[in-house]
Amino acid sequence: MTTMRAHLGDQLVVESNRSEATRREGEIVGLHRVDGTPPYDVRWSDTDEVAFVFPGPDAHVQCTEQRKHAEQRERGASGATRVPAEPHLHEV
């Protein structure tokens, strides 16, 4: 089992196997440990609220670099240009 690690600006993605559960994403705006392990302060994209989160097994971190590559692939596939949001830095 690998340990979850994150940096400020990374995305926390929660995806459940249950059909009634929806995917939830948020930006990691606060770290409580210097090694990047949980818990995190997460600004949820659906509510814009910041919550203290200790992610479960249905969560993973999508790092900023992975997001850049995904956005580049998406632009190449659709021909559209997306402007990524700048990370909101939060001191802990």
From TrEMBL:
It comes from the Bacteria. Residues 4-61 form the DUF1918 domain. Pfam families: DUF1918 (PF08940). GO terms for molecular function: DNA binding. Residues 67-76 have a biased composition (Basic and acidic residues). Residues 67-92 are annotated as: Disordered. Keywords: DNA-binding. InterPro entries: DUF1918 (IPR015035). The keyword DNA-binding applies. This is DNA-binding protein. It comes from Streptomyces griseoaurantiacus M045.
